[in-house]
Amino acid sequence: MDFGRTHKDGANMLAEAMAPHNGLIIWRAFVYNFDPKGDRFAAAYNEFKKFDGEFLPNIIIQVKNGPIDFQVREPISPLFGAMEKTLVSMEFQLTQEYLGWATHWVYEGRMFEEVLKTDTYAKGKGSTVAKVINGELFKYPITSMIGVANTGSDRNWTGHPMAQANWYTLGRMAWNPEISSEKIANDWVKMTFRTDSKSIETIKKIMMESREIYTNYTNPLGVHHVMGESHHFGPEPWVEKAPRPDWTALYYHRADTVGIGFDRTEKGSNSLAQYHHELRAKYADINTIQPEFLLWFHHAPWTHKLQNGKTVWDEMVSRYYEGVKSVEKMQKDWGSLKGKIDKEIFENVEARLKNQLKEACWWRDASVLYFQKFSKMPVLSPYQKPTRTFEEVKQIVDVYHVK
Question: What is the C-alpha end-to-end distance of the chain, expressed in Å?
Answer without folding.
Answer: 36
